[in-house]
Fold:
Amino acid sequence: MTYEQIRQLDDSYIAHTYGRANVCIAKGKNATCWDLDGKEYIDFSSGIGVNALGFCDEQWVQAVSTQAATMQHISNLYYTLPGPQAAQLLCEKTGYQKVFFGNSGAEANEGAIKTARKYSFDQYGAESGRYEIVSLVNSFHGRTMATLTATGQAVFHNYFFPFVQGFSYAAANDMEDVKAKITDKTCAVMIEFVQGEGGVIPLDADFVQQLWQYCKERDILLIADEVQTGIGRTGEILASQHFGIHPDITTVAKALGGGLPIGAVLFGEKVEYVLGAGMHGTTFGANPVACAGAKVVLERMDRAFLDEVKAKGDYLRAKIEKMPGVQSVTGMGMMLGIQPAVSDSQTIVAKCIEKGLIPLTAKAKVRLLPPLTITYEEMDKGLAILEEVLSQL
Structure:
């Protein structure tokens, strides 16, 4: 089919909830992909942080292909092998005790919210009314009703009324505002260590430490949404390791499956037994094919791999900071946000795509989430296009 035929098919039968670029990507290898006409693109997006090992990593392809040819799915009423293997790796690499597998970041965050409320129910009783959750202004936690409510951006709070009760929002990096929002009804505080959709803005280390101590003293659970920062993106398996804390609950997704839908809730000691049989579930959770892919991703996340992610992130940042038209660069590791001094992020991204580079936006910033396996040659090709676009603007 031609691009025009595909576009017309999409227009006719796909609900238009996305503003698509005028490109149809047909195939890819690592951080390079090609459209239907064979035009080459350097991918600085990795499917919004999903393709941790790039396009079509050979080890990943072999693992998911073999599993798909063996058994693609069976319900969670039976034991399977890939799920427990992936869970073991997750726990060993992160220091958590238990894992619940779902299908996405939003579903993982739903599980975290339910766990926090159940914990307070068990500890303090329903009569305590201890179910409220404080999240941060400018956060993003998903598009289900609960995670949309947890999202601290007013732009998302429309159309779908009434929202789920029991959420409030405190200013990031403002401990006094957090204290003002916490009440005797608060069961958890939910944070992102780097506010990705909010503009790739890391939290201050002092704020995180104060928040962690404050919550521990009051038996308020700390939930870390690491859907975008987790599984190597910042140069550690979890971004929490940069801050020297271990949240009670952490959620991961995106990069975990290497390209297949998966999410996970990681439970610390305090909450590892909160959810019992029948209290939570999902049909496709711990899907054998997705977990086979996750197992390969996790096996690759050794110290040498993570140190290389840090080095590549430093390389990208140093190069970009010297480019014309760049006001600042924020983020951690290979999760970077570029604040342009001229033009706007939408225009810059559109022009980059025209010239063969695929970046993302995050509010006013150009956001970069390259595959963690991107080569220096691929980075240089992409950086040359970015500099050319910025120079022309």
In short: The first strand starts at residue 25 and ends at 29.
